[in-house]
Design a protein that fits this description.
By secondary structure, the chain is an alpha+beta fold. It has helices at residues 75-79, 86-89, 120-127, 159-171, 224-246; strands spanning 6-8, 29-31, 34-36, 42-44, 94-96, 102-111, 132-142, 147-156, 199-204, 208-216. Strand 9 (199-204) and strand 10 form a beta hairpin.
Length: 251
């Protein structure tokens, strides 16, 4: 698998919420991820990336985490399994959530070079541990084709590293974030304008962190409640698949 530079969107800034809802401006930059198209082949996928800073980068804080007290006794055998594959994390192109809302998956991208789908800060943080094994992102849009929500599964070799990433991203979601997919041309969706507002949320599973980045395709800054509901709904939908697999489901 090779990688080509493509355009991608940038980080957003905080608007509130306990788990992590973030609103910040977006900018165009170079990008990379590889994606499985509808025809089953592989093609380059455009991504969103954080804007390069004109100032010197600040040192990455050292962060460590221990195993949670409620870690399952079967954890060693669970970690011995392969990390979740894209088709298990994102099994459906047409999604209907429990609240009746419907979404279409318009792109799917995966890479074992996880830093290519992360901000510089998050990639540096991951480098402090034993590494990310796979990063997979899917782009969804709602039935009105107005929203663009990227859900990303970052799977780690160690639970401690996933826990560190989750903790740091929760404290500083601007610095420690994954990038968002831009819609492929065949999707017929607009690219979100640079500088548009958006949302960031995340959940942690056994060995993965599931991120969700939501924006309105036209860059609108209104309708926060509706966008939050969609972003959280798709985050939970994907998280449920990851949890089921990582806790011993067949796959």
């Amino acid at each position: 698998m090779t990688f080509d530079d493509q355009g991608r969107r940038g980080p957003r800034s905080v608007i509130g919420g306990a788990a992590a809802v973030v609103l910040i401006g977006a900018v165009a930059a170079g990008a990379v991820l590889y994606t499985n198209g509808d025809d089953g082949g592989e093609r380059a996928a455009p991504l969103s990336a954080p804007a390069p800073s004109s100032t010197a980068a600040e040192p990455v804080p050292s962060a460590t985490a221990s195993l949670p007290s409620d870690a399952p006794a079967a954890l060693p055998s669970l970690l011995a399994r392969p990390v979740i594959r894209p088709e298990r994390a994102f099994p459906e192109k047409s999604v209907r959530l429990k609240d009746g809302s419907r979404y279409q998956r318009v792109d799917l991208a995966t890479t074992t070079s996880c830093a290519r789908g992360m901000s510089a800060g998050l990639a540096a943080l991951v480098d402090q541990g034993e590494g990310c094994l796979r990063l997979t992102s899917a782009l969804f849009t709602d039935a009105e084709r107005r929203s663009q929500i990227t859900v990303t599964v970052a799977s780690f070799r160690r639970v401690e590293d996933a826990s560190t990433v989750f903790a740091m991203a929760s404290m500083d979601p601007v610095t420690y974030q994954v990038v968002s997919l831009d819609p492929p041309p065949e999707a017929g969706l607009p690219t979100v304008p640079p500088g548009s507002a958006g949302l960031f949320e995340r959940l942690m599973t056994v060995r993965s962190v599931v991120f969700a980045n939501g924006q309105w395709g036209d860059g609108a800054e209104t309708g926060e409640a509706a966008l939050t509901r969609q972003t959280q709904g798709l985050l939970q939908y994907v998280n449920d698949h990851v949890v089921a697999y990582e806790q011993g489901g067949r796959g």
